[in-house]
Amino acid sequence: MMINRSKRLIPAIVTVTLGAMLILTAAPSFSGDPLQEIRDIYAAVNKTIEEKKAQVILFYTSDKGWKEAKDPEQKEFKDIDEMDAFERNYVYLHDGRIIKVRMALETPSGDWMLVRDYYFYDNGRTAFVFDDLATFQGYVPDHDEIEGPYVVEKRVYFDAKGKQVKALKKAFVKATGQEISAEHVR
User: Fold this and answer.
1) How many structural domains comprise the chain?
2) Do the domain assignments include residue 175?
């Protein structure tokens, strides 16, 4: 009788074991480290752009609205109002979806320039935002001025559900890389 019971349990054990194996192998592999996943997205997106596999659309914005540039690589702005050339938005598309957006804003005087990059998960949510502010203004703590330009970098990381998982801010002198307090840079 014991043998008959064992024979009846074998199919159930095999079914449960195979089911568990199927579920475990079919589940997406996730290292559990959202920062590593974001770094992988960042690397893959930039590689796609460097290899010129992404379509680039450049928009100039002003108080009059926006205008799409004929050539995103153009260096001269003959067909663009001079003031519009200081606010540019690059949209990078690959396989029918937006993989990166770059917003670049600068002053006509050249006192500062802000470049903000957005990277996206396949589900369209923001994975990573990177701000790079270059400025000649600021950093005069206790009258110990260090000559600029200065750079303030801000990084914000999000998980695939949109929850912020990490934020970093760093300021430094552009020429030397010497770190300074971000509080004093305007």
Assistant:
1) 1
2) yes
**For 177, left (φ over 0), alpha (ψ -120 to 50), or beta?**
left
Query: How many Cβ atoms are within 10 Å of 165's Cβ, its own excluded?
Result: 12
- pLDDT tens per residue, the chain (186 residues)? 444 444 444 444 334 333 333 333 333 334 578 899 999 999 999 999 999 999 888 887 766 656 666 666 655 555 555 555 678 888 999 999 999 999 999 888 878 899 999 999 999 999 999 999 998 776 555 545 677 788 999 999 999 999 999 999 998 888 888 888 777 665
Instruction: Give this prediction's pTM.
Output: 0.73
Task: Note down the domain range covering 123.
Answer: 33-184
User: Does residue 6 fall inside a structural domain?
Assistant: no
Domain-located, residue 18: no
> Is the Cα dihedral 51, 101, 173, 135 positive or negative?
positive
**Looking up tokens 């990059």, which residue turns up?**
117
CB-based contacts of 130: which residues, under 8 Å, 6+ apart? Answer: 116, 117, 119, 153, 154, 155
Residue 134 domain flag: yes
